[in-house]
Write a structure and sequence with these properties.
Layout (H helix, E strand, L loop, with lengths): L12 H10 L6 H13 L3 E4 L6 H12 L2 E6 L6 H4 L1 E3 L1 H10 L13 E3 L1 H7 L4 E6 L6 H13 L1 E4 L3 E4 L5 E6 L7 H6 L1 E4 L5 H11 L5 H15 L9 H16 L6 H5 L1 H4 L3 H7 L3 H4 L6
Helix pairs in contact: 1-2, 9-10, 9-11, 10-11
């Protein structure tokens, strides 16, 4: 294996970390190191972590840094190869067949082929980043198929032949760890676990992504969200909820709501489950920020 040291102008983990920050993705150095190594070694990057820690956003930010369009394959239970690779446009084929007077009409020409994410990434490896999102939601049969695709980046289309990527595409996989992934898939990737950011980093994220939020408000919201995450909630607030809660409370405050009432009125931005709201209701006085800018 020949490692590349410079990828689209990024020649070190530190340079990638700086580029991600410029793309408004604030992260710990370890993620930048894993991402850089995946790029340098030409291997997929597997990001695992709880929902809401920023895995998908990391892939989007990486695509922005590299100047590539992000092609997203959202996995779900029951997804099959057809939804991931390609499909024939049967209605268009039928219409062409009815309108054609040419007995030699090719019903399997490129105009009838609908690219799905894997084929699209395979055909555009130099300009795209393939994001395979929430692979743990797909069943194990699809995971085995995906392992085969990632091994040689080749697709066989019975009607037209085999297509192979001219170079390995940049691939990022995410998993919420709702089930264990196969060891063979893990071995093929560079792995990184994304945890909730520490309070100082999360405050920095809020201030970067929500420009109207005062620093004291950001600190208060982050402290409150930290207390919520320590509770046994079914849907603890992620980083996105932290940012949005700070923005929502600030909006209400600018419209006349006093602190901490603004936080309480905007609680639905942070907690989005009826049972979680009911569980925390007796504790809200201790959890909600008391004072903010």
């Amino acid at each position: 294996m020949v490692a590349r040291t410079n990828i689209a102008g990024v020649d070190s983990p530190e340079a990638l970390a700086e580029a991600l920050i410029a793309a408004q993705y604030i992260t710990a150095p370890a993620l930048a190191t894993s991402s850089y190594l995946a790029l340098a070694l030409g291997k997929p990057l597997l990001l695992e972590g709880a929902p809401g820690v920023g895995k998908t956003e990391a892939a989007k930010a990486l695509g922005g840094v590299l100047g590539r369009s992000v092609i997203r394959l959202q996995c779900y239970e029951g997804i099959d190869a057809g939804a991931a690779l390609y499909e024939w446009n049967y209605p268009r084929q039928m219409l062409a067949l009815r309108q054609s007077e040419n007995s030699a009409l090719n019903l399997y020409g490129p105009e009838f082929l609908m690219e799905r994410p894997l084929l699209s990434a395979l055909r555009n490896p130099a300009t795209s980043l393939l994001l395979i999102d929430e692979i743990d939601r797909a069943d194990q049969e699809f995971e085995a198929f995906l392992l085969e695709f990632l091994s040689d980046f080749t697709i066989s289309i019975p009607e037209t032949g085999t297509e192979r990527a001219t170079q390995p595409p940049v691939v990022v996989l995410t998993s919420n760890r709702t089930r264990d992934l196969h060891e063979a898939l893990r071995r093929r990737c560079v792995y990184h676990w994304i945890d909730y950011p520490d309070p100082a980093l999360e405050v920095q994220i809020v201030l970067t992504r929500a420009s109207r939020v005062a620093e004291e408000t950001a600190r208060a919201v982050v402290a409150s969200v930290g207390l919520m995450r320590a509770e046994p909630l079914s849907k603890p607030p992620g980083v996105a909820e932290t940012i949005e809660w700070a923005e929502a409370a600030t909006l209400l405050n600018t419209q006349g709501a006093a602190w901490p009432d603004a936080f309480a009125r905007a609680i639905g931005v942070a907690l989005k489950d009826h049972d979680d709201l009911g569980y925390l209701a007796p504790k809200l006085d201790q959890i909600l920020p008391g004072q903010a800018a």
